[in-house]
Each structure stands twice: as C-alpha cells, then as structure tokens.
Amino acid sequence: MTQGAGQVPGTWQGGGAVAHGPGAAGAPVHTEHPPVQAPAPPREQEDDDGHGDDGYTPTERDLPVVRPEAEDDGGEPTLVDVAVQTAIEEGEGPLYVVGDVHGYLDELREALRSAGITDDRDEWAAGNTRLWFLGDFTDRGPDGIGVIDLVMNLSAQAAAVGGYCKALLGNHELLLIGAKKFGDTPVNSTAGTASFQAAWLLNGGQRSDMERLEDHHVQWMSRLDAMALADGHLLLHSDATCYLDYGDTIEGVNDAITEAIQRNDADETWELFRKFTKRFAFRDETGSMAARELLTVFGGRQIVHGHSPIPYLLGELANGEAGEGADADEDVLPAVTGPHLYADGLALAMDGGVTMDGRLLVTQLPLDD
After folding, report:
1. CA distance 177 to 40
2. In Å, how far are 139, 279, 287, 311, 327 from 77, measured between CA atoms?
3. Is the dihedral of CA 88, 228, 200, 213 positive or negative?
4. How far is Cα of residue 93 from the mean position of the Cα atoms in its chain?
5. Which residue in 217, 238, 251, 260 is a FRET match for 322, CA 20 to 30 A apart?
6. What is the number of other CB atoms lying within 10 angstroms of the CB of residue 329?
C-alpha cells in the first residue's frame, strides 16, 4: 500500500488497552501458539432449525436494548482501546478494528475521534491507518443510516491519502437488505411462518432507517466482504463456523456470499441471514477447537469478531433475559472495559454491548502485551 499523507494517530492514554481473559485480572493475555495444524475437529452440530445450542431464533427478539434515561455522571459514552504501536510493514499504517455499532452514531463519532482516526468534523485524520468495521451498522440504535453514510465517507477519504476504511457484512446488514427487498414475503423457516419485515422489526429495525435507506446503501451493503485477513487476524462478524459452508478460501467465501445476495432469492437470503445469526462457537469447552478449525482453513493466528456482546460471552447475561423488563441499574448493566480474549487466545471479541449501555469498542491490533 502506498504511503499516504496525513497524521497517524498516536497512542491514546485514556485507560489503555484492556482485555478480559485468562490470567491476571484486567490484563490482556497473549499466549504464543504454534502454527495451526490439521486435522480440524468436527463442527458444532445444529438441529434442523439451525439453532444448535445457542437457542437463537431469527423470529424471536435477540438482544435487549438498555439505554438509561440519564447518562452516568462519571463515565465516558464510549471506550477506545489503543495498544502500543508495533512494527508494521513499510508503507502500511496501524490496524484498527471497530465492533458492532447498531445505529449509535454519536458514540461512534466520539470513539473515532478519541482514537485520532477522525477530526472534530468527522473527517479522516489518520493518514495511512487501516480501519476495519466488523459489521452490524444498523438496528436498535437511532441512526443506522447515518452510521453507514459516515463509514462510506471515511472509506473514500482514507483511500485518497493512502489508508483504508473497510467493512464486513453482518447479520443485521442481511436483515435490512432482506426487509427492503422482500418485505412481508413469506420465507421458508422451520421455526414457523416468517418474513424479513417481521424479523427486522422484532430485532430492532428502525422505521426512520428504512425511510432513509436508498439504493446506493443497499448496493454498498450487498457488496461487503464476509471475512478478511489482516496482519494474521482473521476478521469475521459472527462468532460462528457458518463461513465454512460457503468455501475453503476467504476469496471463495466472499464471492459465494455476494453471489447469493445478488440472486435476489428470498429463501436463499433468509438461509444466509439465519446462519449469520449463530453465535458462541468459540466460547465453551470445544471453542478453541472450532476457532482452530477456521484458522486452519482460512489462515491467521487469531479470530477477531463482533456479533455476540461480551457480557454474553462472559455469562453475565443469558440470551437477553436479564435485560428484559429489568431496571437499568448497576445490577444488570454489563461492565465492559475492553475486548474479550478467549478460546486459548485464539479469539478476540469486539462487541462491547453498546445497545446495552456497554461500550462501543475501537481497538488497535495487536493488543498490547
């Protein structure tokens, strides 16, 4: 990549990089791992509905939205974790990733500014920095279309100065695409009669987003890659093994998913959406084996994903039940201080639970040792 103009962001000292994981409390844990080798373990079993052990049904409300009326007096609205900059290839800037945004545009603006990636006008200020969004730009929060517009603008601005701003496809992009294209058209679902429109509204769809959604937004989302490899990090949206259903190379998976979306078939798009809603593949006893399988097939030394909020991965909330109808107090709100490192160091979770009054995470990779 050609060296670009502009100023590379320095290290932000507002709290440092903190990862939840095994080892000393509050400190990121990194373990040297030998190269990932086959044979790969069998993938997690799913029932005919595709719900497996996570219990998620696309026609049921997935995650709670907990936003207190009043902001906490002492807290920042977002958290930005920035690691000490490490050596990078000549001509390439530092690598950052952004977790699920879900329409929280103000929090995203603040997080990007705090990291030095954008200026006070929300324009690219990071020179040749490389920035990846891990998907789920819309739904639940108030301004999903504003988030998409910002990401699209930053992509053009970064490219002009030798950096880049790229994004991955999330399940909520698939949900919004389906609601726009297929509306109330019934789709084949073993969970019962379903439609994209009903599932979209049930899972936080904002009518104001649909009113502002234009063809160029749909085209942009439809062309997003599903996975990428950057500096040894395998970037995904979902903490799931469904990517293996679409190919055995990153390029093959991306092409297959893009082609599936472009065929404009409601049932095929629903099946793709349903698979992307799977979660927790890397969490339990067999989680490191599942992570190792993906790394064996697609490359990289660590998976970095969004999708499942960190409180869920830590067992602090189960399928959103703790947040349903509960008071928004300290007993139920998640405490997220940074990315969550788990699965024997093979997986890094980036969804800080912004929809649950958690944190919108913007993190430089690799994490500080």
Report:
1. 34
2. 19, 26, 32, 17, 19
3. positive
4. 21
5. 238
6. 9
Q: Which residue has the higher pLDDT, 109 or 78?
A: 109
8-state DSSP, 283: T
pLDDT band at 114 (very low <50, low <70, confident <90, very high): very high
CB 144 within 8 A of CB 137: yes
**Phi and psi dihedrals of 130, rounded to 5?**
-110, 125
Could you say which DSSP state residue 78 is in? S
pLDDT digits (tens, 9 = 90+) for 253-301: 999 999 999 999 999 999 999 999 999 999 999 999 999 999 999 999 9
User: 347 - beta bridge partners?
Assistant: 303, 342
> What is residue 68's predicted lDDT score, i.e. its pLDDT?
42
Question: Rounded to an integer, what distance in angstroms lies between the CA atom of residue 226 and that of residue 224?
Answer: 6
HEC profile for 310-354? Answer: HHHHCCCCCCCCCCCCCCCCCCCCCCCCCCEEECCCCEEECCCCH
What would the two tokens of residue 246 be?
């679409």
For residue 76, the model assigns a pLDDT of 35
Task: Report d(CA 358, CA 351) in Å as an integer.
Answer: 9
For residue 132, report the phi and psi dihedrals to the nearest 5 degrees.
-120, 130
Is residue 285 within 8 A of residue 324, CB to CB? The reply is no
Angle between helices 250-262 and 215-222 in degrees, nearest 10:
150
Residues 6+ apart with CB under 8 A from 280: 53, 54, 239, 287, 308, 312, 313
Q: Which amino acid, residue 33? A: H
> Can you tell me whether residue 245 is helix, strand or coil?
helix
Tell me the pLDDT band of 189, cut-offs 50, 70 and 90: confident
Higher pLDDT, 187 or 328: 187
3-class state of residue 366 by DSSP: coil
Is the distance from CB of 82 to CB of 11 less than 8 angstroms? yes
CA distance 241 to 223: 21
Cα of 142 vs its chain's centroid, Å: 18
**Burial of residue 14 (number of CB atoms within 10 Å: 0-12, 13-18, 19+):** exposed
Cis peptide before 339 (omega within 30 of 0): no
Contact 180, 172 (CB under 8 A): no
